[in-house]
Specification:
The structure holds two protein chains of two kinds. By secondary structure, chain A is of the alpha+beta class. Chain B is globular. Classes of the chains: A alpha+beta, B alpha/beta.
Chain lengths: 405, 232
């Protein structure tokens, strides 16, 4: 009967209850969104680097090398000699070396030239291949293409389709003569390579054999680094182990034409550079959270306080302090549970929309799903709401019942 | 038997103390029905609150069937009130969020007077008696004042209390409804052998009672003391 009373009390004041739920929901949605964005961005960036133990590329900014190779953003620094790839392939410290070549696109989606070994690449031994086919087969000969899940979905590409690549990283560049033939569609890797089109590296070399650079392209020399025959833009290197990775790293310190980087380390450094800004953002988020919690507490408090007369009536009818506390806590719990549920759903809804929007504009894929922080938000939000209802319960109990009758 | 001995209720302000009610002695035997009369503000409601245990006296003692109600711990007083007291409040105090039936069930849920499995049936039976069986699903605001008053009466007697208190139960009713509500209260009290105390300033209502207890102001405009006289 106590729960029935609590529920009916809430239904009897729909505007007040609705507003309280709305305020709680808005607060929780905001908290959820801040948490998801923070965790999602961090995890999304870290996860994208997972398939890349080591990357070898031209000398230059390691950040640019990671952005280009891992996230398929920015322009390549330049190319490295095919000999380096050959040397790495034969190096006993190396488990696998996969060449990558960039520089062309199809409707803005990056074309990645690579070897067939990319389909056998296992980021962690025994955990399956990184790139798995949803439909079709891997490429076997030049000008066959395997399309990333995101690219296939956005462009409507399917096995058997043909397309022509364009030079550069943006649509509207100089078109190549050869047609690419789609032979496979990848499963989603929930990472930047969902937005890629994988082709045999020979296709890139062949496509550029007869390519005459325009004056504008000559100015952007970095765009044309791949035009030198049989060079590669980057090499994904999987070392045999951690000590082998460190030895490789040391070896490359003496290499004049290339650098080797740990992408995960670059990302960590990037986070540390962004740390100050992130710290400020976190401070702002905390202020918002505290304000939200205060508003939520006031709303639940106000809601509980406005039912003081009903409680006095119940006390007059013989309800014990325990009965009243049960009813008040049940009311506050119902309001906050409802608010928290709506808030979590709305927070996830907005986050999902943001993820969708971001995935179509950038190659960074935000992670989704419940985070441990959300668990704290749910438990904390409900406890905080119940606590806010607890205060008027005590105040009501301390005041003489007759005052309200 | 209800005994009110040397009871005084005072409220302290910053610079003064106001006596809300003072009663030297009032004894009501089991089964007795009395009218409590007096001018507005003389302390009738305060006295009823004191008797029901909603307020505790500043001094004095209230006893019911040898239990000193005024000395009971609050939790025990709550339980005692739930089972032994039926109260028709001046403002009715029906729970707006609950239906007529639920208003009765709530009152029963705090007392252990009626076995749980019989509660629904007893509530229905009582609503038939107060001619509200057709409106048991309605909410208080959907009822007329007379109907609301009858719900309040039904709620007051639902636990078959030994002490029924009614604070101006007919004040906002027309003559016919007033007499109907009073008859109901008197009938229920008679059936269960309960004490009935009805506060009123309606002469016609007073005339229905054999015994009238009067609270009088000692000085006009100053409610600093009142006495109770039995006019029986």
């Amino acid at each position: 009967m106590r729960l029935v009373i609590a529920w009916r009390n809430l239904l009897a004041k729909p505007v007040q209850s609705g507003l309280t739920v709305l305020i709680v929901a808005a607060t929780i949605a905001m908290l959820t969104l801040v948490t998801l964005l923070s965790t999602g961005t961090h995890d999304g960036l870290v996860r994208a680097t997972e398939p890349f133990d080591l990357i070898v590329g031209a000398k230059g900014s390691p950040n640019q090398l990671v952005l280009n190779t891992v996230f398929l953003q920015d322009v390549p620094i330049g190319n490295v000699s095919h000999e380096i790839y050959d040397t790495l392939s034969a190096d006993p410290l190396v488990a696998s070396a996969i060449p990558l070549a960039f520089g062309d696109n199809y409707q803005g989606y990056t074309i990645v030239g690579s070897g067939s070994g990319i389909f056998q690449h296992e980021p962690k031994n025994g955990q399956g291949e990184w790139l798995q086919l949803a439909v079709g087969r891997p490429f076997a000969i030049p000008f066959e293409a395997v399309v990333g899940a995101g690219t296939a979905q956005k462009l409507g590409l399917k096995v058997g389709d043909e397309f022509k690549s364009v030079h550069g990283l943006l649509p509207g560049g100089h078109g190549h003569a050869h047609d690419y033939h789609v032979v496979g569609i990848l499963q989603s890797v929930k990472g930047p390579y969902d937005q890629a089109i994988l082709v045999p590296i020979e296709s890139i070399w062949l496509a550029h054999e007869k390519h005459e650079p325009t004056l504008e392209e000559e100015v952007g020399a970095e765009d044309h680094a791949h035009e030198k025959e049989h060079e590669v833009t980057a090499i994904m290197v999987k070392p045999k182990g951690y000590s082998e990775a460190m030895r490789l790293y040391q070896q490359f310190q003496r290499e004049p034409g290339a650098q080797i980087i740990f992408p995960a380390q670059v990302i960590v450094q990037l986070f540390s550079i962004l740390g100050q800004g992130e710290h400020m953002l976190k401070m702002v988020a905390y202020v918002i959270i505290v304000m939200g919690l205060i508003i939520m507490a006031l709303s639940v408090y106000w809601s509980a306080l406005s039912r003081a007369r009903d409680r006095a009536i119940l006390r007059a009818l013989g309800a014990s302090a325990r009965d009243i506390f049960t009813i008040i806590i049940a009311e506050s719990a119902l309001l906050t549970i409802l608010g928290v549920t709506v808030g979590i759903l709305v927070g996830h809804g907005i986050y999902w929309l943001l993820v969708r929007a971001m995935s179509s504009k950038t190659a960074i894929v935000l992670t989704a799903g419940l985070t441990p922080d959300e668990g704290y938000i749910i438990i904390g939000g409900i406890l905080f709401g119940m606590l806010a209802g607890f205060i008027p319960a005590v105040l009501t109990y301390r005041r003489e019942v007759a005052h309200y009758l | 038997m209800l005994e009110v001995n040397q009871v005084r209720k005072e409220y302290s302000d910053v610079d003064r103390t106001v006596t809300a009610v003072a009663v030297d002695s009032l004894i009501i035997q089991n089964g007795e029905q009395i009218a409590l009369v007096g001018p507005s503000g003389c302390g009738k409601t305060t006295l009823l609150h004191l008797i029901s245990g909603l307020l505790t006296p500043t001094t004095g003692e209230i006893k019911f069937d040898d239990i000193i109600v005024s000395a009971m711990k609050e939790t025990w007083r709550d339980t005692w009130r739930a089972t032994a007291v039926g109260y028709v409040f001046q403002r009715l105090n029906l729970l707006a969020s609950l239906s007529v039936l639920d208003n009765l069930l709530v009152a029963m849920s705090f007392a252990s007077a009626i076995p749980k499995k019989e509660q629904q049936q007893w509530a229905h039976q009582l609503l038939i008696q107060v001619k509200l069986s057709e409106k048991m699903g309605k909410f208080p605001h959907q009822l007329s004042m007379g109907e609301q008053q009858r719900v309040a009466v039904a709620r007051a007697v639902i636990n078959k209390p030994k002490l029924i208190l009614a604070d101006e139960p007919t004040a906002s009713l027309d003559q016919d409804n007033a007499m109907l509500v009073l008859d109901m209260l008197r009938q229920f009290a008679k059936q269960s052998g309960s004490i009935l105390v009805v506060s009123t300033h309606d002469k016609q209502i007073m005339s229905q009672f054999e015994r009238i207890c009067s609270l009088r102001q000692k000085a006009k405009g100053v409610i600093d003391s009142a006495t109770c006289d039995s006019l029986a």
